[in-house]
Design a protein that fits this description.
The protein is of the alpha+beta class and 305 residues long. It is built from 8 helices and 11 strands. It is globular, with a radius of gyration of 28 Å.
Length: 305
Amino acid sequence: MKDYKWFFVYFFWQALLFLLVYVFVTDINIRQNIKRNRLLSSPITKESVTPYPILKEDRNPDISALAAVVVDDDSKTLLFSKNPTLLLSMASTTKIMTALVALSYYKMTEVLTIHNDIVEGAKVGFNKGQKVKFEDLLYAMLLPSANDAAVAIAQNYPGGETAFVDKMNEFAKLFHLYNTRFGDTAGLLDDKGYTTPLDLARLTSIALKNKVFAQVVDTKSKDISDVDGKNSYSLHNLNKLLGTDGVKGVKTGYTDEAGQVLVTSKDEKGHTIIAVVMASSDRFLDTRELLGLISGNVNYLSIHP
């Protein structure tokens, strides 16, 4: 009889435990269903919708560039690629990072001194000892791609050019540009600096978030002078595509080893498209081909998260 009594007590407690677990699990499921139903029944806002680009027609643009990418910046979607992770010299597109480091340190009105007027490649023609506002040096570096402006910006930085380049590589790690290395501020040292089309597109995406940078690279021409007003300079953007078909900039580059390089930002029906061509023999024609791939050929699907 005692055995039966023990059995009934054991059965009672097992049943009670099962009931408690069932009630607990059921309560959780009910709460989750209520939460899910509220989410699904909530109004869809612009913030809750992620437009995802789909090419209407799959085309194969004929380009001379050894490597290239086209990215929808808003969704980070790769729309076209050719050797996207190939390591190549970036030439003067280096100055995109030079600008970001400089913008993080200098004030636009800050006056810098020209320490060295012996600089190779493209230059405005600043003279040693001249004093020029940082803002004007920034325009000189990004429009006509003046190497003397890039060098002056770095030489006025604490620790000089070496410290400035170190900061550029520190930013590269911070931005997760793991296939990028900078050797100088102007992009002249092809053997020490390299990147990939994907990394260059990512860097450009970050740079365009800076309103000052975006405004400068979207400028066709600008007149500047030193602070004394004794010397004036007329600057013209080297990007021939700027202002055509929604193109907003960004930066040209060229050396014998790197070939022609071009990073371009384009507004496509309210969406930002970034195109990168590297090691090209005709960067503007190649970029037109890539932008032609996108123009009128993208559907944006609204996906509710």
